[in-house]
Amino acid sequence: MARIKNIELPNEKHICIGLTAIYGIGRSLAKTICKDASVDPEKKIKDLTDAEITSLRKEVDKYIVEGDLRRDVQMSIKNKMEINCYQGIRHKKGLPVRGQRTNRNAHTRKGKGKVVANKKKVGK
Length: 124
Description:
This protein is mainly alpha-helical and about 120 residues long. The protein has helices at about 15-20, 25-35, 50-60, 65-80, 85-95, 105-110; strands spanning about 5, 5-10. The chain has six helices and two strands.
């Protein structure tokens, strides 16, 4: 089983798909890494030789991935929250950050509906 950046890559998948298990690597970057490492992206991970795994590791080391990328993202979010920019305020309040509507959606960000106490229906 191939191990890159302390991530076990799934054996049964193609290389370009298996590399996406690493945080920060998507499909297009995985294809670029395979091309630069001169490895066939359609090859299964279990069929890789040690030399190919080594060349893939060297190519992945050129990019910011996994722990470093997670840290950078968290630091940028904290920075926005400290300077009280619009996105930072939205992060603090737990609301959608990128302009989505909130009156009829955004339940994944906002959470379960809150009950308003003593709200009575207006009668005739």
